[in-house]
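Quick one, tokens below:
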């Protein structure tokens, strides 16, 4: 019933409407999407879209990023503004500013935030000469950020930070996980002089569930099977896997795996189960990350309701004081990573 309603509205609005969905959305949402992608693909698509109404099926920071990049005539809507990201919520922007000011006593610190962060955090990155990154372009963006100052504050995901540092050849002794408790009062700027990379201690509630011991057991019990994981996973999990990459890389890895092979996939289960349907010639098994409860908040009912009430008052609003700085941070990423 909701599916018909959604299709009717889509038909009526035609090219005036674009429905975007993240790979972690369920099939009943993805089937209505004009574009399905990872964070980078979806963000990069915004400036090219001609549609006046853009409905973003994902979590809040994605819709906010879209609103930052949208042109004046475009309105961004979220079927459920309560769908937030646990990882992004671990880095409140006021605390990020306080910590950045503290660590900056050690020299020029460039903030580099994963796109899984609030618009307030992205604005701080833009304001302090930093940028944002996605899991697919994190190594290139970290290299760029390191060239802009004495050290980099990478946030909010410590696992993506550690995995990116490993790929970039940064010595573990040059990495420091910040103690953000007590408003950052435990941080001593003098201790950071020989550090290149300062990590915010956030994690993804989904990929955090994958434990090195469990993945080691899968490896032991399934000789010959492939294991591919998302780099938000623990570095011990990434070390055991055959490949770690963004959702787009996980998809291409699965596609390229030989017919008849077994592939264990460590990412959100909606994507894993979709790949299982798409590639019946392979034995595709979820590694056990499970579902993201916030991504799951978007339902066909909420999508239909959203499509039926796209008035400017309901569009995603970004604080006009934050928007220019946040846009600068995102544009820096698009400039560096897409060149
Ligand atoms: S999967 Fe992890 S990073 Fe993605 S929205 Fe859910 S909690 Fe946030």
């Amino acid at each position: 019933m909701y599916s018909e309603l959604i299709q009717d509205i889509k038909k009526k609005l035609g090219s005036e409407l674009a429905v975007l969905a993240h790979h972690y959305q369920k099939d009943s949402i993805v089937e209505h999407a004009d574009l399905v992608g990872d964070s980078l693909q979806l963000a990069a698509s915004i400036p090219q879209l001609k549609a006046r109404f853009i409905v973003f099926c994902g979590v809040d920071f994605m819709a906010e990023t879209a609103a930052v990049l949208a042109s004046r005539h475009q309105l961004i809507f979220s079927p459920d503004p309560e769908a937030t990201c646990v990882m992004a919520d671990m880095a409140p922007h006021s605390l990020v500013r306080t910590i950045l000011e503290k660590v900056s006593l050690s020299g020029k610190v460039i903030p580099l935030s994963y796109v899984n962060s609030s618009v307030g955090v992205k604005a701080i990155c833009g304001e302090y000469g930093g940028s944002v990154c996605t899991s697919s372009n994190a190594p290139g963006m970290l290299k760029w950020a390191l060239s802009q100052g004495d050290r980099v504050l990478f946030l909010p995901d410590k696992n993506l930070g550690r995995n990116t540092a490993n790929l970039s050849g940064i010595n573990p002794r040059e990495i420091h996980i910040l103690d953000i408790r007590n408003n950052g009062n435990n941080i001593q700027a003098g201790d950071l002089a020989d550090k290149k990379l300062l990590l915010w201690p956030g994690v993804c509630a989904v990929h955090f569930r994958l434990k090195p011991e469990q993945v080691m057991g899968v490896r032991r019990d399934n000789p010959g099977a492939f294991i591919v994981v998302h780099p938000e996973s623990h570095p011990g999990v990434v070390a055991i896997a055959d490949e770690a990459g963004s959702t787009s890389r996980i998809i291409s890895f699965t596609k390229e795996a030989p017919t008849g092979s077994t592939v264990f996939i460590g990412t959100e289960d909606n994507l894993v189960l979709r790949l299982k349907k798409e590639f019946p010639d392979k034995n595709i098994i979820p590694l056990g990350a499970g579902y993201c409860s916030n991504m799951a908040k978007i339902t066909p009912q909420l999508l239909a309701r959203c499509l039926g009430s796209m008035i400017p008052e309901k569009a995603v609003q970004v604080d006009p004081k934050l928007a220019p700085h946040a846009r600068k941070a995102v544009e820096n990423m698009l400039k560096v990573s897409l060149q």
